[in-house]
Amino acid sequence: MKGAFIINGTAETYTFGPADTMLSVLRKNGHAEVKSGCGKGECGICIVLLDGKPVNSCQVLAASVIGREITTVMGIGNFRNLNPIQEAFVEAGGVQCGYCTPAKVVVTYSLLRENPDPSDADVRNALDGNICRCTGYVKILDSVKLAAKKLSGGTDD
Fold first, then answer.
1. Where are the strands (E) in 25-145, listed by range?
2. Domain end: 75, 110, 134, which one?
3. How many C-beta neighbours within 10 Å does residue 103 have?
4. Same domain for 103 and 141?
5. Can you give the residue range of the structural domain that contains 140?
6. Percentage of the chain surpassing pLDDT 70?
7. How far is the C-alpha of 58 from the C-alpha of 155, rounded, in Å?
8. What is the mean pLDDT of residues 31-37?
9. Of 24, 50, 115, 150, which has the fewest CB atoms closer than 10 Å, so is most exposed?
10. Are residues 119 and 92 in the same domain?
């Protein structure tokens, strides 16, 4: 089957099987920034935004999202043009091995669009289900708080 998607603001058309997930279609078509983890929707490593909302892309059939908008971390910022959220993750040490970082940035982006001044509980709730095996989450929470401050125009002192 063939389907058109809007990926990071660009219309793309891909060929895929009826049982292919959004994750497999994205990765087969060069979107290596979307990581593959458990394949069961438990680790959150594959999170992307679907029409602005975070979803585990391993749990969504590609055929069900034809014509919809998909945003990966590359649609938020890239190596040449980092988003303040990505800068905050680097500056606050929320990046360890980096494997979970793209999904954490995507979730943080979604959270801060809806709630520019989240409490610690809001941040924990947003990141729930997005597993990191390298950190104790303190640096990740610090990263989200710093990102909120950067986006609100506050200083990062």
1. 47-50, 53-56, 69-71
2. 75
3. 29
4. yes
5. 84-151
6. 98
7. 37
8. 96
9. 115
10. yes
- Residues 65-85: tens digit of each pLDDT: 999 999 999 999 988 999 999
Which contacts (CB < 8 Å, 24+ apart) does range 115-118 have? 116/148, 116/151, 116/152, 117/148, 117/152, 118/144, 118/148
CA 117 to CA 123: how far, in whole Å?
10
Q: Tell me the CATH number at 39.
A: 3.10.20.30
Same domain, 143 and 89: yes
Give residue for tokens 């989200």: 144
**Helix boundaries (H) for 29-94:** 84-91
Q: Of the residues 10, 41, 75, which one is the last residue of a structural domain?
A: 75
In this predicted structure, what is the pLDDT of residue 96? Answer: 84
DSSP state of 19: T
Q: Residue 123 has which token pair? A: 């941040």
In a domain, 100, yes or no: yes
**Backbone phi and psi for residue 115, each to the nearest 5 degrees, phi listed first:** -145, 90
